[in-house]
Design a protein that fits this description.
single chain; 3-stranded antiparallel β-sheet
Length: 155
C-alpha cells in the first residue's frame, strides 16, 4: 500500500497519468466521538467496518478522492486521530514492514498504544484495520485497473 499510495510519485499517480481516471474511495466514516459531544472511549477504531460499504445506507458513506482517503481517520486513541496515511506509514516504517523507525514519533506511539489494547480475531488492531484500508483501496483503484487493462487490449 505504501508504494501504491504514498510514494512520490506513487504507482497510482504514475499509472493514472495517461488514463486520468477520477478515483473515488468509498468508505464508512469513523467519527471523533468527543468532537460530536459524545462520551469517547479511550480508543475506538474502524477495524473492518471502514470497508463495509455495502452494509450501510448510501447517505452515510464517504466518497473521497485519493488525498481525502489518505486523510480519513480510521481510529482515535485518547484524542489522537490516526488516519489511513498514519496507519500505512506505521506498518511500513515503525512495524518493520519496509524500514524500522517512523518519521512521526507521536503517531507511532499512538499506534503502539492502539495495538496494546486489544486483539481482533488474534490480530493487532492496526493490522486488522489495514485489511479494511486495503479493501477500500482495491475497490477505489478498480476503475484505473480496468482502464489500464482496456488500453492493453487495444494494443
Amino acid at each position: 500500500l505504501r508504494e501504491l499510495l504514498l510514494s512520490q510519485p506513487s504507482i497510482t499517480h504514475m499509472g493514472n497519468r495517461q488514463h486520468q481516471v477520477k478515483l473515488a474511495f468509498r468508505c464508512v466514516p469513523v467519527d471523533d466521538l468527543a468532537a460530536l459531544g459524545l462520551p469517547a472511549p479511550q480508543f475506538h477504531s474502524a477495524a473492518l467496518g471502514f470497508a463495509m460499504v455495502d452494509q450501510v445506507t448510501p447517505d452515510y458513506l464517504q466518497e473521497l478522492p485519493l488525498a481525502g482517503f489518505l486523510r480519513a481517520p480510521v481510529a482515535f486513541l485518547e484524542g489522537e486521530e490516526l488516519t489511513v496515511r498514519d496507519l500505512i506509514d506505521y506498518v511500513a516504517n515503525a512495524a518493520g514492514g519496509v524500514h524500522f523507525g517512523s518519521k512521526d514519533r507521536r503517531k507511532r506511539s499512538a499506534v503502539d498504544e492502539f495495538n496494546k489494547w486489544v486483539r481482533l480475531n488474534g490480530w493487532q488492531p492496526a493490522l486488522y484495520t489495514l485489511i479494511a484500508v486495503g479493501r477500500v483501496a482495491v475497490a477505489g483503484l478498480r476503475p484505473l485497473a480496468d482502464a489500464i487493462e482496456a488500453a492493453r487490449s487495444e494494443d
